[in-house]
From TrEMBL:
InterPro entries: DIOX_N, IPNS-like_FE2OG_OXY, IPNS-like_sf, Iron_ascorbate_oxido_reductase, Oxoglu/Fe-dep_dioxygenase_dom. This is gibberellin 2beta-dioxygenase. One of its GO terms (molecular function) is metal ion binding. Residues 176-282 form the Fe2OG dioxygenase domain. GO terms for biological process: coumarin biosynthetic process; response to molecule of fungal origin. It is an enzyme of class 1 (oxidoreductase). It comes from Salvia splendens. SUPFAM superfamilies: Clavaminate synthase-like. Keywords: Dioxygenase, Iron, Metal-binding, Oxidoreductase. Its EC number is 1.14.11.13. Coiled coil: none annotated. The keyword Iron-sulfur does not apply.
Amino acid sequence: MVVLSHPIVDGNLTHIKTCKAAANAVSIPVVDLSQSGAKTVIFEACKELGFFKVINHRISMDFVTQLESEAMKFFKLPPPEKAKSGPPNPFGYGSKVIGPNGDVGWVEYLLFSTNPDLASRNPSSAATGISETLWEMANEYVSAVREMACEVLEMIADELEIPTREALSRLIRNQKSDSCFRINHYPARPNLPALTGRSLIGFGEHTDPQIISVLRSNDASGLQISSGGSRWVAVPPDHGAFFFIVGDSLQVMTNGRLRSVRHRVVAESVRPRVSMIYFGGAPLTEKITALEGVMEEGEESLYREFTWCEYKDSAYKSRLGDDRLSLFQNS
Ligand code: GA4
């Protein structure tokens, strides 16, 4: 995909890219989880865009706001304190550097594994600025969001008309599910002449490798999704809603029926943006392949068979914006 971006050179912004400020406006599908027609809207949105917004989800917004302020307490600590929880190899605190292969953005973050087998690679709260309260609240939040994601995945299974309703949800409910949780803080955009008419890249364009991601942010703008080609659509923020993002694994498991969506975050706001994303992934040994009952008779698999572990290893060797699935496509 062509990105209209070039690096700007200015002290601590060196190497962070910018892009054209304007983005098209397209309406984002809205799913009311309390309505019986939710399934149909979800399925259509996953086919068309790989993205939708969920309202009436029953998750307490007071709790979410509290978690957000607890996270902000961490981000307000002096840099050397925050650095004690880093570097994110692959989990922990990171500032500007994203992943191991040279990607950077106008962002700082905390990244945790929710897989108990990998928990030892999370920063330990004793030695770091991450409070016990933040840990506990993050765990509670992940459990609630995971349950909502399972509900949505079961609706997707219904619409796919596959024999097992839990074929997708069991993967992220599984004790060994390789899921992770990220809290991103995009500081307010600096006021620099070099940025006039342009946006600073907060988190560069990419697709999520997992099955499904659930994002919630404060009311600061910045999230954009690709609507094909180099067209970007700005997603208006909504602090009371959750945004669902179809990941590469779900695209493969539905043999391309549902599509993973490229998205990015630009720092365009004078207000800091805080987002929390739960990435629901399969257990490491799970085969990522078309689900039983998905394929029509005679339909060929678009992808060769691979495990989540293989895909994840390959993802961590890639650059953020790479088309990671192309390496697994059948010719
Ligand atoms: C994108 C989705 C998730 O944020 C993430 C990211 C991960 C990271 O930040 O370490 C990756 C990126 C993400 C895909 C390619 C690799 C790995 C950065 C990167 C360059 C946590 C994930 O699982 O994959």
